[in-house]
Specification:
The protein is mainly beta. The chain has no helices and five strands. It holds the Pfam family Zn_ribbon_LysW.
């Protein structure tokens, strides 16, 4: 089985390099290794990252 390849994308918060595996899908959440910001993959060719929206807590309501 061939090894998985990856590409790098810039974090929109800190401009750090974020490694994106070829298995990564659009709308998936990844984490920046530098600033620990949660990022959403909004495009794949080329890879585009955006700060992930905050999940609203419903607290069972």
């Amino acid at each position: 089985m061939p090894p998985a390849t990856s590409s790098l994308a810039a974090c929109p918060e800190c401009e750090g390099d974020v490694k994106i595996d070829t298995e990564t899908r659009q709308n998936e959440i990844v984490e920046c290794p530098d600033c620990r910001c949660e990022l959403e993959v909004v495009g794949l060719e080329p890879v585009v990252l955006a700060v992930a929206p905050e999940a609203d807590e419903d607290w069972g309501e």
